[in-house]
Amino acid sequence: MGIVYHAIDLELDWEVALKMMDASIANDVDLVKRFKQEARALARLDHPHIVRMHALKETSFGTCIEMEYVNGITLEKVLAEIAPLELERALYIFKQVLLALDHAHRKNIVHRDVKPSNILLTRDERNRDFVKVTDFGLAKLRDTTSLTKLGGVAGTLGYMSPEQVKGIDIDSQTDIFAAGVNLYKMLSNALPFTIEHPAAFAYAVVNETPRPIRDYCPNLPHILVAFIQRCLEKDKTKRYTNTAEMIPVVDQISVDLNRQQETIVIADDEEGKKERKTRRLSEYVIYFISAIILISIGYFLLTTLVGVQLPGCKEPIPQLTTISILSEPAGAEVMLNQQVIGKTPISPQSVEQGKSSLRLSLQGHKTLDTIVTVVKRQTLNLNFTLVPLITSISILSEPAGAAVQLNQQSIGKTPIQSQSIEPGTISLSLSLQGYKSLDTIVTVVEGQTLTLNFQLSTLSIPQPLKTGQYIFRVIPRGRVRVDDTLRSDYGSDSITLTLSEGKHTVIFEHPDYGSLTEEIMVERNKTKNLTAYFEGYVSINAEPGFGYIYIDGKDIEQTTPIDRLPLIPGKHRITVSRLGYETIEGEK
Question: Which of 24, 361, 385, 477 is the most buried (most CB within 10 A)?
Fold first, then answer.
């Protein structure tokens, strides 16, 4: 899918590895997606045992990934030359692979193609193997769908898990299976399942038992055999829960190996063993006799010729050896036999032979307690991986499906299981349509696994009001009160009010003409009108009587004399006329 070149970044003046997309697949949408998915996977990772990504670039030659350049060789080539590996070296390489996978899994990335050709070996400052895991081209991000390779299945034959072969959804357990196959390969130079052709392998890995590794390595410790068998369980729930759980087991196997001071021979013939044993025994006898002679001569010279009296030793002088202690991460406080001797890394220092208690403690990690046995003239190098104290929170709600925000960041919907968080005080918000939002503050202690279950309260939905409308007018302009509440001020010609169904008291007010009070009945979904007139009174008389009266040019159909004729306040033109008499007009 890609070709890797050794190149120089001219801007930064450093060596890089350029992974160029093969031009022949540039138009294949799925393969382009997989190539860019590798870049997205690498961008999330920052670990000393994983090849670092620098950039994803579009060039005139096509898309490429600029990565860290590793001057090394693949484990595949190493195995082709010197397989099987010595047990100590295989475990040392394997542990570094686990550290890399553990980091990827914590970032929700599954490699899916862990094999010797994707494990680079370089050398560290102490000239030891240093692992760099590479090629995340098949990596599965939590938020992406599966990509296919062979028959709809992603992976490499020989290293694929049963669930990978079946094409079902996979997780970090697939990498644990593949890691176990890699360890099997390093120790035996064989694979647990024979690959005659893809179909035969697919059947074997799903249905058959892996070939026992002791068929190749009869002297492997029982604990290591059981460890590999558990990695290769067909039911992924029977494998190790995560890579962090595997690392202390590897450490313990390494400690036991150092304690026993023996090399486990993976393949050897019995005659060769007997020959070496006889040769070593003869050498030991010669060395012992020579030492006795030299000591006797020395004692004679010192006591007889020189006259030195050697003091007697009532108790044997303890034999001393050296021990060095490393940890991942570094900085752990170390107690040896209940005495603090410093923080890791602890450089080689003298200790008494025999059993010693050892404790490593580091904030945010589980305290490690163990017993180590130091033998005479041994240089014991210990390297421990400390297991982080995982602080997690599970959030449930009734009903489920509530959107959850943790410290104002969305983390999904309930139920939320084992969400890793930083210890301390956190804010939580839960929201679900039709229910009251819930906000709370929670304090989480380091290493605590906290489960919270919230009961959401339903929203009380108000019933629609039974209302009607009234349009009020005041002539001349005034203000309106409804049930003692002022609803409009002076200067309004009219106002439309929505009122609840039933009786209401309306008061119309005018600064000059006082107030008028009306009782109204509001009917649901109906609109009514009510106009308030503030009236004045006028009396009209003329001689002789029976004159016709006109107000503002309108015949009111009444004749003089008239007493207390109601009129709207303001100016009015009053006209009185009678046939045969002069018409009289005036304003009032």
Answer: 385
